[in-house]
Structure formats: structure tokens, C-alpha cells
Design goal:
Bound molecules: uridine-5'-diphosphate-glucuronic acid
Strand order of the largest sheet: 11-10-9-12-13-14-15
Shape: elongated
Structural class: alpha/beta
Radius of gyration: 24 Å
Number of strands: 15
Length: 439
């Protein structure tokens, strides 16, 4: 295996996990970030993000990993520079490329030899070409870069596994030389390549994420209709998913998709379509369905309480999905202001996302350390995340501890049959309500 001197710009989910996994496969990797505190932390072998297996790999590959804020020196002699900085959503829905351009500028000012710049961040179609032009027209030392599009498909919570055992490595290149180098970089991963032009690689990323978002919105619409006509979405999804053309993944109905990717990437593609005067009707629908779905539990709860004023509200799960502390676009953040504005007394439990939630709601919510504390004397309970601690909890606790055992499960954590003989109201998504409490 050929060992490359790789530099990764950005130490978020994409940048850090990529860097650490490349080191695991034998490359020498330097991770660059502007935040000195974060760099000091990582130098101690600690991960600034909660990601299974990441710290272990950081420790294991210490000798091949370095962390620095000194971008200039890091880029100077790099063979390959990966850009993994964020491309957040702008107010109009388009992707903000500010951070990508900041890195591009630093690269142009510092490199002293020709190198490959790999754009891992999710960027609008045409960006690789533009960044290449930008760097090459600003270099100081008469050197050239070639941009390679190499989109990322990792999911938060399983990022290390998704990177080391990816289902494909997409590489968008314009020259055989860049293709050769990229094949060597990823050689030890032993994963199938999709080699294409840069525009197609950029599109593969958006099209994949938006397809999954659309699949979720689709199953959520079917779930909503199931509720009306008396069908059961769990059985419906099972029946659909066994058809290998459909597949059984991403057919879990719930309170919609959140996170740092699907919401932003659907809006960005929609924006791009509009920009070229082409209306992407399916993507628009996925966005609209999701917006409504996120507050679906609140609408259901209004059946029981016109207002939440003065009520004890229990919340289990705050993160946008389990095994992450990330709160970006979490459905809980759409519901929480409604509960608090109404004047509810909210008690919440999320073992991992609590500290991030505290940054948004430091005092307005009482943070609990157990399911028991959260449920005690509650008038209603909302489940926003399907954490294992929820799925594995003793369901008798609802009846035992709550003042009124009204459970609104936004992630279908339990089989409705489990509540058949329990004196509770159990509402979920796309399934019949179990009501053994109010006759
Ligand atoms: C997503 C993609 O799955 C990754 O392939 C991609 O690389 C990543 O975005 C990215 O662009 O960086 P992620 O946002 O980490 O990954 O999380 P997912 O596991 O895909 O979940 C996204 C949202 O969809 C969550 O809120 C989840 O609860 C929801 N979801 C997922 C459903 O509501 N139903 C499902 O069946 C599956």
C-alpha cells in the first residue's frame, strides 16, 4: 500500500471520521481546524463528537495522526487535501459555501507542490470545478491542484463503521492521474468504486440523500392515511419492504427526518432546481410532508388537552435520532417551543443530548437522570427519539408513575399489543390508538 501524506480540513463528523479512518488504513493524516480548544482536546486522543469507536481508533493510530490549527504548514507539503467542512443552509435554502472557500483560499496561499484536493463536503453541482479554478488562479508558488469530488455517505452514530465498510466509494475526477491517486488512497478499504465525472459525483450525493428523505416522507404519508383508514403501518412497511425492489430500509414511519443532512440537502436541491427554472416536485413534497410530520404528536396531543398550560409533560429523547448528541433539525426542537409557550412544565431525559439541549434551554426544562424521574406525576409523555433506553424500558412504569398515562410515541418504539392490557392511552404513528384509560 502506498502511504500518502494527507491533510483533512474540518474536524466535524465528516472530516474527523474520514481522517481517522484514513490513518487506520495506514496513511499519515493531519487534521486541521480553526478551533484551538478542539485541537488540544483531540491531541489528547479525545473526540469532540459522540461517535462509536472513534476515540478507540484515535488512540490506536496516534502515531499516524496529528491535529493542528496551523493550516499553512499542514497544507504546504500535502499529497492529498480532503475538505470536510460544513455547508450549512442559507436563509433561502441554498448551501453556504463560505467555509469551503475559506479553506480553498488557505490552500491556494500555502501549497508548495501540486496536489489533489478532495471535496467531501456536500456541495452544489458545479462546485468542484469552481473551487479548482479559484485555487489555481490564486496560488502563490506556481503550483496546481486538481479537484476530486468524493461525497460522504456516513450516518451519525455509525460513522466509523459506515466509513470503513462503505457500500461504495464515489470518485468524481477529470483526469486519469487523479483517479490513480484516489484508488491508491482508498486501496486498503477494499470497497467498490464508482468512478465518474465530478458533476455526477456531486449529484449522486444529493440524489441519494434526497431519495432517502423522500422515502421517509412517503412512508409517513402512508402512515397518516393508515391512521385514517384503520390500517397498520408496521405491517404495511413489512409487506412493502420484502419486495427487494423497494427494500426494507428507511421505511420507519415517525415524526419525520431531522439531522444535519436530509433537511439541508432537500432544500439545497430544491433551491438548485428553482435556480435553473426546474421545479423538483417530489423533493418539494418531501420537504412539506416533513414539516407537518414534525409536529404531528402535538396535534394528536390536542385531542386530550386543548392547552398544555400547567401540565407536567414528560419527554423521552431529544436528539434527532438515537446514538448521537446532535440536535440539528431535531423534531423535539419543533415541539418544545409549543409546549413551553403554552406554559407546560417539561421534564426531559436524554442521556447523550442533554448537554447540547441545555445550551438552547438552560433553565426552561428540568433535565432528569432516569425514565422514572421523568415520568413521575406526568400528565402526558412524548417520545421523540427511539433510544434503546426507551425501547427496553419497563412499560408498566407509564401506568405506575404518570398522573395520566397518555403516551405519544413519535418513533413507534413499542408493539401496540404490549399495551393491550395496560390502563394507558398509547398513540403512535400510523397505527391504531390503544385507549384503555378513558372509556
Ligand atoms: C444521512 C444519510 O443516511 C447518510 O447516508 C449521509 O451520509 C448523511 O445523511 C450525510 O449526508 O452526511 P444522518 O443524517 O446521520 O445520515 O442520519 P439517518 O440515519 O439517515 O437519519 C436521518 C433522519 O431520518 C433521522 O431523523 C431519522 O430519525 C429519520 N429516519 C430514518 C426516519 O424517520 N425513518 C427511517 O426509516 C429512517
Amino acid at each position: 500500500m502506498k502511504q500518502y501524506n494527507i491533510v483533512v480540513a474540518g474536524t466535524g463528523y465528516v472530516g474527523l471520521v474520514t481522517g481517522v479512518c484514513l490513518a487506520e488504513k495506514g496513511h499519515k493524516v493531519t487534521c486541521v481546524d480553526v478551533n484551538q480548544e478542539k485541537i488540544d482536546y483531540m491531541k489528547k486522543g479525545k473526540s469532540p463528537i459522540y461517535e462509536k469507536g472513534l476515540e478507540e481508533l484515535m488512540m490506536k493510530n496516534k502515531a499516524r495522526l496529528d491535529y493542528t490549527t496551523d493550516a499553512y504548514n499542514a497544507y504546504k507539503n500535502a499529497d492529498v487535501i480532503f475538505i470536510g467542512v460544513g455547508t450549512p443552509e442559507k436563509k433561502d435554502g441554498s448551501a453556504n459555501l463560505k467555509y469551503v472557500y475559506e479553506v480553498a483560499k488557505e490552500i491556494s496561499q500555502s501549497i508548495q507542490k501540486d496536489c489533489i484536493v478532495v471535496l467531501k463536503s456536500t456541495v452544489p453541482i458545479g462546485t468542484n470545478k469552481k473551487i479548482e479554478k479559484f485555487i489555481n488562479s490564486n496560488t502563490k508558488n506556481n503550483v496546481k491542484v486538481e479537484l476530486v469530488s468524493n461525497p460522504e455517505f456516513l450516518s451519525q452514530g455509525t460513522a466509523v463503521r459506515d466509513t470503513l465498510h462503505a457500500q461504495r466509494i464515489v470518485i468524481g475526477v477529470k483526469s486519469k492521474n487523479a483517479e490513480k491517486i484516489m484508488r491508491e488512497v482508498y486501496d486498503a478499504f477494499g470497497i467498490e468504486y464508482v468512478i465518474t465525472d465530478r458533476e455526477s459525483a456531486e449529484m449522486i450525493k444529493y440524489a441519494s440523500n434526497d431519495f432517502l428523505a423522500l422515502k421517509i416522507s412517503y412512508i409517513n404519508e402512508i402512515a397518516n392515511l393508515c391512521e385514517i383508514v384503520g390500517a397498520n403501518i408496521t405491517d404495511v412497511a413489512k409487506g412493502m419492504g420484502l419486495d427487494s425492489r423497494i427494500g426494507n430500509k428507511f421505511l420507519n414511519a415517525g415524526i419525520g427526518y431531522g439531522g444535519s443532512c436530509f433537511p439541508k440537502d432537500t432544500k439545497a436541491l430544491n433551491w438548485l432546481g428553482n435556480y435553473y427554472d426546474y421545479e423538483l416536485k417530489t423533493i418539494k413534497a418531501a420537504i412539506e410532508v416533513n414539516e407537518n410530520q414534525k409536529i404531528k404528536l402535538i396535534k394528536k396531543a390536542r385531542k386530550y388537552y386543548e392547552t398544555f398550560e400547567g401540565l407536567n409533560v414528560a419527554v423521552l429523547g431529544l436528539a434527532f435520532k438515537p446514538n448521537t448528541d446532535d440536535l440539528r433539525d431535531a423534531p423535539s426542537l419543533d415541539c418544545m417551543p409549543i409546549l413551553l409557550d403554552d406554559g407546560a412544565k417539561v421534564k426531559a431525559y436524554d442521556p447523550v443530548a442533554e448537554s447540547n439541549y441545555k445550551k438552547i434551554y438552560p433553565t426552561e426544562i428540568e433535565y432528569c437522570k432516569s425514565v422514572e424521574d421523568t415520568l413521575k406525576d406526568a400528565d402526558i409523555c412524548f417520545i421523540f427519539t427511539e433510544w434503546d433506553f426507551v425501547k427496553n424500558m419497563d412499560i408498566d412504569l407509564f401506568e405506575k408513575l404518570m398522573k395520566k398515562p397518555i403516551i405519544l410515541d413519535g418513533r413507534n418504539c413499542f408493539d401496540t399489543n404490549e399495551f393491550k392490557n395496560k390502563k394507558v392511552i398509547y398513540e403512535s404513528i400510523g397505527r391504531k390508538c390503544v385507549n384503555n384509560y378513558i372509556k
